[in-house]
């Protein structure tokens, strides 16, 4: 069963409005305030939609997040049952420092079709094919690079790998350097980082490394529609996180999740630019209007486009 196309319009308006709500906080060095603006706005706008929506990825557990907590029911209560994953402000540092790459993101599926991800780190890998076995989290970096170069019929030196700039990635980064792979080192924003494999225009062949689990699920939702390969493995390295996994019903804490384990059936993904980045431009002001750009995918209609929206500035 597919998601009605009207939801593309509705959810792209949600991320667009959330993006606009952060504008007063850009460059104000207060990432919490910027995040709160996006969260509050997104929650109140989601509540206006005719749906029985449930947050499966949000701001955290009920005890930690009063808004958009995992399990929160949203919408008018009329209409289809939907699973909703949100990252109202992905790249809070980017917004606080007015740097490129801040996004407002949503992924939606029919009920029980989106993975309810724990708030832990995830080891991730993504490439632009839906073929399994070329890259794998369990392969070492050299094997992944060699396999990918062979698959793409490219010289290793022509490959570009995107990875978060973190001390935990030193070994991988050193190996990429040794292999003379071009590195696109990102400081934050690994939803966008993963999506850079989805189109040749971004000039990224491989995304890898450890980032947020929820961000991994959001990226996988888009990569599913974009025909890409994604694999993720949650990192349960503390007693607390192992316990959380148990309470969430995760039996095998070493499981490698393929896209089909993360998202099933139809989906809609929307990412609106807050500040301009690789994927989309940020919010612009033209006269009395905000202009936003949203990357949208809708699996069942094979939609993959950038939608430009206008919203009147209220004075
Ligand atoms: C990433 C990135 C986020 O967190 O998931 C990263 O996408 C992972 O956490 O934008 P650490 O910063 O602890 O490495 C963010 O950078 C911030 O949520």
CATH topology of the largest domain: Fructose-1,6-Bisphosphatase, Chain A, domain 1
Oligomer: single chain
In terms of DSSP E residues, the strand content is 25-35%
CATH class of the largest domain reads: Alpha Beta
Task: Fill in the keyword field for this structure.
315 residues; alpha+beta; Fructose-1,6-Bisphosphatase, Chain A, domain 1; D-Maltodextrin-Binding Protein, domain 2; 2 domains; eight-stranded mixed beta sheet; six-stranded mixed beta sheet; 9 helices; binds 7-O-phosphono-alpha-L-galacto-hept-2-ulopyranose
Structure summary:
The protein has 315 residues and is of the alpha+beta class. The chain has helices spanning 6-21, 31-46, 92-96, 141-152, 170-178, 190-195, 213-225, 239-247, 259-262, and strands spanning 52-57, 73-74, 81-90, 103-110, 121-127, 160-164, 182-186, 206-212, 229-235, 257-258, 267-273, 284-286, 289-298, 303-312. The protein has two domains: 6-114 and 266-312, 2-Layer Sandwich (Fructose-1,6-Bisphosphatase, Chain A, domain 1); 121-262, D-Maltodextrin-Binding Protein, domain 2 (3-Layer(aba) Sandwich).
